[in-house]
Amino acid sequence: MKILGENGIGKFLKVFLQICFWGGIVLLIALPLIAQIAKVHLNASIYVIYPNGIVLLVIVKQFIGQFDSLENKNPFCIENSKRLKNCCIASLVETVLLIIDLLYMIFLAKSDDIFVLLVMIFMIILFIGVSIAFYILSELIKQATEYKNENDLTI
Q1: Domain segments of the chain as ranges
Q2: Are 40 and 64 in contact (CB under 8 A)?
Q3: Hey, CA dihedral for 28, 29, 30, 32, is it positive or negative?
Q4: pLDDT tens per residue across span 39-57
Q5: Are 55 and 98 in contact (CB under 8 A)?
Q6: What are phi and psi of 154, to 5 degrees?
Q7: How far apart are CA 139 and CA 95, in angstroms?
Q8: Are the C-beta atoms of 41 and 47 separated by less than 8 Å?
Q9: Which DSSP state fits 43?
């Protein structure tokens, strides 16, 4: 299966991520209207949904840039390392937002739904791991780019 270039899987994933990105923006904009039609009162939930949604859109946008470089047959470049670091930071921000959400649910909303609390804890642990993985991948791409540039100079 071809990964790089115009007809590679990277092109397909880039289009899929662009649909997700623009669909996410439309969903965030239309959310109050959708909630009103469905007769759902968002109240304080709106302060949770929007920051989380924006952070996740930032991560998707960074991945669109990653797949651009695959399409251009240039996966090892400093821009990709920077994009992965941006994803790392966004994942840490998401972790902080999820911790705030969890504390809100426990202390202010007095939620006793153990399933929701366990899912929140799982999401916090997951995004910490994702953030670490993004950082490691960023450093890996940075090293690969340096080696590639050194080899290009010797040839």
Answers
A1: 9-154
A2: no
A3: positive
A4: 887 777 778 889 999 999 9
A5: no
A6: -80, -20
A7: 21
A8: no
A9: G
